[in-house]
Amino acid sequence: MQGKIIIFSAPSGAGKTTIVKHLLQVNPNLAFSISACTRDKRGRTEENGKDYYFITPEDFKQKIENDEFVEWEEVYEGAFYGTLKSEIERIWESGKHAILDVDVKGGLSIKHFYKERALAIFVKPPSVEELAKRLTARATDSASSISSRVFKAEFEMKFEDQFDEVIVNDNLQEACSKAEKLVEEFLNAEPAIV
Ligand SMILES: Nc1nc2c(ncn2[C@@H]2O[C@H](COP(=O)(O)OP(=O)(O)O)[C@@H](O)[C@H]2O)c(=O)[nH]1
Ligand SMILES: Nc1ncnc2c1ncn2[C@@H]1O[C@H](COP(=O)(O)OP(=O)(O)O)[C@@H](O)[C@H]1O
């Protein structure tokens, strides 16, 4: 089996983590690609090596110099995130397909890198106002972090046309069903020739 890549990108708060978690529950052929990042771990809700590889800015810089990333971004000021080539290889070697939750620019870079082997899906919130409401209700970010995410969202919404598919996440159940269908079709299609 040739491993493939499913990329989920969206402005923060649109629901990509929720949809990716749902897909991981229903599809045993998928494995989550754990990114490296330099931000602090969120208390007891996150685990190193499960949610992210939490590394120091120095380690991150070293990995950039060693060309270990498919892509990396300073997603928020001072917070670096990147997809490691070794992580995708690890998943493919385990006989699974990689599913990624990355920001909009990162998602397009990964699509560009893996081309037909990757499906890039943009998760669109019903509105920016709804996005702000969801981030507030999620209660994981400070008011200033929420406003910087909402500000960035206005810019990120302009990139939806560059993705292979768009899912509007208004009703979560419908969005999850659409995601399941798109992923299944992509994985069942002829293997990409690369
Ligand atoms: N470019 C890029 N972005 C990533 C990567 N991993 C995570 N992200 C994005 O970084 C952003 C910040 O995530 P985070 O603060 O952990 O939480 P979130 O707001 O709940 O998604 C999200 O948009 C993630 O999708 C990566 O490897 N590369
Ligand atoms: N369709 C939806 N309607 C209402 N709330 C939602 C919906 N989808 C997700 N949420 C909630 O919105 C918040 C942001 O979702 P999350 O998956 O963390 O977004 P992202 O990973 O894109 O930042 C979470 O608290 C989640 O439970």
Question: Averaging pLDDT over every residue, what do you get?
Answer: 94
Strand adjacency order, main sheet: 2-7-1-8-9
Ligand list: guanosine-5'-diphosphate, adenosine-5'-diphosphate
- SSE ordering: EHEEEHEEHEHEHHEH
InterPro entries: GK/Ca_channel_bsu, Guanylate_kin-like_dom, Guanylate_kinase, P-loop_NTPase
Protein name: Guanylate kinase
Function: Essential for recycling GMP and indirectly, cGMP.
Domain Guanylate kinase-like: 3-184
Describe this protein's structure.
- By secondary structure, this protein is an alpha/beta fold.
- Helices cover 42% and strands 23% of the residues.
- The chain has 7 helices and 9 strands; from the N terminus they run βαβββαββαβαβααβα.
- Bound molecules: guanosine-5'-diphosphate and adenosine-5'-diphosphate.
- Adenosine-5'-diphosphate (ADP) binds at residues 10, 12-18, 134, 137-138, 169, 172.
